[in-house]
Amino acid sequence: MIEGSPRPGTSPGAGKNDVREPTFDETGLQKLGDQIRGRGKPPSHRAPKRRYRKTKRVLLTLAIVIVVGVAGTAGYGFYLSHKIHRIDVKGLIDSPTSGADAGTENILMVGSTDRCALTVQNPAYGLCSQGVNGINSDVVMILHLDPKKHSVSILSIPRDLFVPNARTTGANKIDAALFQGPSQLVAAIEQDFGIPIQHYVVLNFDTFANVVNSLGGVRMYFPMPVFDAYSGLKQLTTGCIPLDGIHALQVVRARHLQYQGPGVTTSNPAYWPFENSSDLARIRRDHEFLRVLGTAVAKNGLSNPLTDTRLVGGVASQLSVDSKFSIHAMVDLVLNFRGVNAGSAPQYTLPVAIDQTGSYTYKGGSYGAVEFPVAAQDQQVIRQFLGVNATTDTMHGGQLPDPSTVTVSVMNGSGTYNQATTTSDALSALGFKMAGVGDSAPVGTQSETVVYYAHMTSADEAAAQAVASSLSGAVIMALDPTQITDGARVTVVTGSQFSVNPPASGATATTTGGGVTTSTSAPTTTTSTTSANSAFQAPSAAVTPLQPWDPRSCTASGGEGP
Question: What is the C-alpha separation between 465 and 409, in angstroms, rounded?
Fold first, then answer.
């Protein structure tokens, strides 16, 4: 049984012919794009005098390496297009055509643990035949592309984040959504976080390993010996170490990492100390690995995307993308972002609060280690990631509605005395039109506050965003028409750790118990969050530095990189 959430019920090189492989400068690459899109004449096989300049970094290599690679000759691009697996993914949103976000795209990148989907079983990953058959997402990462600003940003969502719509049957860790297919993972991200997804790319273990192997491996600097019994990582020497695909995979999958730090004298890794925040620590190392891999790609491959057939051919057959992600769209993406320096691209991790008990119980079921959302920080990071302001509807564009146009009901979901009434009064002080209060059966001692809405329309989703933006603490949105009460557009089911944000000016605050502080009087009342009885840690940061034991880049001379 693989690690993760509980489950209900369960190289070839370039062709050696007489024709030289073409090389292209930026004009040649543009002509190539025109050819693949059906415009212009095929490019000549004669190499132009000026070579296409290498970029210092290659953006989000695990996806873009394929996107760039398929921009080969028209015939080779057609061939690779038929090697790439196409998936019918529901819920994808068309790229906006007007407004400040016109032309922007969000590509959902997923690392799947599906061993049974591998063409050749590999004992290094765990064998499907031996029961290692779970399907979840080791990596959930979103790439945001803005052609107007010529900018790129990356957002990682921690796999242990507990969300209401992880599955059609209800709440779970977000990594559990992939068990029901990519459409469910897309739905969870769009419905719960208000992030529109235009394209979907999934990579398995073989895809990742083949990218690394096609580049001749990568080098990483290990400042301390490290070990992970689950991922197979066992690096007992320090320094700049060459890694092939399998060993690189062990690095990026390590989430139970132990290290031999100063003062640790035993050479037995089993007795080395464990790092804290394993889920977030792995994301931190994954972001560093992207920098290392991008450097290797810029140095060894894609300097001329038309000639590196070994890199592309070794990966394309094990890559899956949504059926709408056409060759034309891939070429356009390459042409628009080929000069972007990924080394300067912001890399964010969605802030979360980590359960300190390691055994979260929800509706009587145990879900192990989980993380809760932190509304104020999450919304700030999502808007920064998408490049929009606090009054923008992140899902559909446009402005969030005025509170006076949003009807809200409140259900007491924690059992705290009078919580629904005091929360309703506080929301009313912010200008929302209150429809009624009531009670909902508690789901556990610790619970999220969920802002429910009935329809995935711009009006309903934007109304939910407006309400969610008025709350702090462990708060998240969810699409569920069955939860709407009293004819309201939005229903808030209160949890154990949240607060209603204060109005623009105020003086007092009232604590309702259960770690919740809400306003109860006129619009001059202030509110604050209290979590003294919480089992969760303080919110994590959106950007964290490497720790002393983390593998990192090497310098050109083999020393420790930045």
Answer: 15
